[in-house]
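wait is this the right file?? whatever heres the structure
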């Protein structure tokens, strides 16, 4: 009886660690939705470390479905995050082109003065 209680506690602790990874994944997407890109790279590094630690030991069969569902959620979140990052990069590229054109116009104006 004590062994199964100990196993349940370990399983709950592992699931809590996995939940922390999911919370961080959701936070990354939430920040991207708000256009707050500053910390996403740091959060990704933190998430990667948490995942490395979590998967350093095999997932027990009793937790396999829970973890598999979480992985699917993370993959879905990552797809959306990647799409947001592409849109943000396209927006920056457009802004840089406008800035470059403005700089060229300013240079042309300065030469013709």
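ok assuming it is, sequence goes like this
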């Amino acid at each position: 009886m004590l062994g199964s209680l100990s196993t349940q506690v370990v399983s709950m602790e592992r699931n809590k660690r996995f939940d922390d990874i999911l919370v961080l994944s959701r936070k990354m997407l939430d920040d991207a939705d708000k256009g707050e890109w500053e910390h996403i790279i740091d959060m990704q590094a933190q998430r990667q470390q948490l995942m490395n630690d979590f998967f350093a030991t095999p997932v027990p069969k009793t937790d396999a479905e829970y973890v598999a569902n979480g992985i699917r959620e993370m993959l879905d979140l990552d797809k959306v995050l990647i799409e947001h990052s592409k849109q943000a990069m396209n927006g920056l590229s457009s802004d840089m082109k406008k800035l470059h054109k403005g700089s060229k116009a300013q240079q042309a104006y300065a030469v013709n003065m």
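The first helix runs from residue 2 to 33. so i think its the right one actually
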